[in-house]
TrEMBL record:
Subcellular location: Cytoplasm
Catalytic reaction(s) noted: GTP + H2O = GDP + phosphate + H(+)
Gene name, Swiss-Prot/TrEMBL: ffh
Binding site for GTP: 109-116, 192-196, 250-253
GO aspect biological process, one term: SRP-dependent cotranslational protein targeting to membrane
Domain (SRP54-type proteins GTP-binding) ranges: 102-298
Domain remark text: Composed of three domains: the N-terminal N domain, which is responsible for interactions with the ribosome, the central G domain, which binds GTP, and the C-terminal M domain, which binds the RNA and the signal sequence of the RNC.
EC number: 3.6.5.4
Shown chain mapped onto the complete sequence: 4 to 301 of 486
Residue intervals of the Signal recognition particle SRP54 helical bundle domain: 3-88
UniProt record similarity statement: Belongs to the GTP-binding SRP family. SRP54 subfamily.
UniProt function note: Involved in targeting and insertion of nascent membrane proteins into the cytoplasmic membrane. Binds to the hydrophobic signal sequence of the ribosome-nascent chain (RNC) as it emerges from the ribosomes. The SRP-RNC complex is then targeted to the cytoplasmic membrane where it interacts with the SRP receptor FtsY.
Record's protein name: Signal recognition particle protein
GO molecular function per UniProt: 7S RNA binding; GTP binding; GTPase activity
Length: 298
């Protein structure tokens, strides 16, 4: 999978020039860092993230006798790899679990980001990996099609949906849905909430009300990787209002640049927990920063 072709190629070129040299001078390093900086900016990585990244790599490369040591080029590649990994959060962060069932997962995000699809993918994953019995709650009452879509997704993976149509207040739907999950001993509840085309106050208030009622163990924000810096801004907006616990980066299969993947953790402080890599229900993967760094470096 060559998701971030441009970035990979430019980073490889920058490092290849170093490799050709027997000895790496400070000015060689400066030139390489300039190229890495431009490669990251062209990939739509957040400006501050790029600045911090380049500073970190340069400091490490200048220190500890890297330039005077054996294989300086190889050591610099290793530093870049490690710093990319660090920028994306170092370690995979697992889903939060409730001490006592059900674990409540609230899905939030803008319309079209992939919230409903991801809710289904997650339910299937929990079913397959943990033999879990999730219940999904349809709390998007603004678009009748949204409930139909969730019902369809859920039918395809054989997971029950709690719904009360579009005439009941979403907070009340969630309250009754949670009561049903309690009665049926579901071990997970996945709440599909409304999205809008943009962040607006009314939506945020509604989501905050659902959060206050449900006390979710996990608030998963889905953002579309293909929207680059807009995905990062969206993540900041949702996080400011809801204090999300994790991010799902969707449509990574169509993301040719990589800016969102590289920026979101550093900008919001919140971990990317999963990545969506296709429309199929099985195409949800745990996000591993080290593997993503390797993929970026090619
Ligand atoms: P919602 O409005 O946030 O609930 O978004 P949907 O779940 O309806 O998804 C919007 C569109 O994006 C649908 O056509 C999905 O099939 C598609 N989609 C969701 N996740 C992915 C993904 O990881 N990769 C690709 N290629 N498409 C996705």
């Amino acid at each position: 999978l060559m998701a971030f072709e441009g970035l990979t190629e430019r980073l490889q070129n920058a490092m290849r020039k170093l490799r050709g040299k027997g000895k790496v001078s400070e000015s060689d390093l400066r030139e390489t860092m300039r190229e890495i900086r431009l490669a990251l900016l062209a990939a739509d990585v957040n400006f501050t993230v790029v600045k911090d990244f380049v500073k970190q790599v340069r400091e490490r490369a200048m220190g500890a006798d890297v330039l005077e040591g054996l294989n300086p080029a190889q050591q610099i590649v290793k530093i870049v790899d490690e710093e990319l990994t660090k920028t994306m959060g170092d370690e995979a962060v697992p889903l939060n679990k409730a001490p006592k069932i059900p674990t409540i997962i609230m899905m939030v995000g803008l319309q079209g980001a992939g919230k409903t699809t991801t809710a289904g993918k997650l339910a299937l994953r929990l079913k397959n990996e943990e033999k879990a019995r999730p219940l999904m709650i349809a709390a998007d009452v603004y678009r009748p099609a949204a409930i139909d879509q969730l019902v369809q997704v859920a039918a395809g993976i054989d997971v029950p949906v709690f719904q009360l149509g579009t005439d009941v207040d979403p907070v009340e739907i969630v309250r009754q849905g949670l009561a049903q999950a309690e009665a049926n001993h579901n071990d997970y509840v996945i709440i599909d909430t409304a999205g809008r085309l943009q962040i607006d106050e009314q939506l945020m208030d509604e989501l905050a009300n659902i959060k206050a009622l449900a006390h979710p163990n996990e608030i998963l924000l889905t953002v579309d990787a293909m929207t680059g810096q807009n995905a990062v801004a969206t993540a900041e907006g949702f996080n400011d209002k809801l204090d999300v616990t994790g991010v799902v980066l969707t449509k990574l299969d169509g993301d040719t640049r990589g800016g969102a993947a590289l920026s979101i953790r550093a900008v919001t402080g919140k971990p990317i927990k999963f990545i969506g890599q296709g429309e199929k229900m099985t195409q949800l993967d745990v996000f591993h920063p080290d593997r993503m760094a390797s993929r970026i470096l090619g």
